[in-house]
Amino acid sequence: MDSKPVPTPEAKRTLERAKEEELGEFQRRTLDYASKFSRISPAKAEKLVKELSEKFQLDRKDSIQIVNTMPRYVEELRTILTVKGRIVGASELEGILKLVNNYRE
Q1: Is 5 exposed, middle or buried, given 0-12, 13-18 or 19+ CB atoms closer than 10 A?
Q2: Residue 66 predicted with pLDDT over 70
């Protein structure tokens, strides 16, 4: 079985496809969380992950974290990207926020 990180909206869509009685406690809690915190549609989420990865050379996991949180401010974005010790310039942070804002619902 392969596994790959997916944005929260995609996890929500996958869990919604299952029948309620098929979901275990963990899956039900995950669906509840995903329902509350999905900020954009699954299709938009995947497209944004791809654009972030390509335009800004971000790891898929970093792009997914950005999509999951949909930061509004440079400071929020900086906390996501500096965890690995990567230094990101102000102009790049602004570009990422501009792209994220284009997808905001």
Answers
A1: middle
A2: yes
DSSP H helices in the chain: 8-17, 25-37, 42-56, 60-69, 74-81, 90-103
Rounded to two decimals, the pTM is 0.89
Residue indicated by tokens 């602004």: 94
19 and 67 housed in the same domain: no
Same domain, 73 and 88: yes
pLDDT given for residue 54 in this prediction: 96
For residue 57 the two structure tokens come to 């050379």
- Helix, strand or coil, per DSSP, at residue 61: helix
Task: Dump pLDDT digits (tens) for 13-60.
Answer: 999 999 888 999 999 999 999 999 999 999 999 999 999 999 999 999
Distance CA 79, CA 76 (A): 5
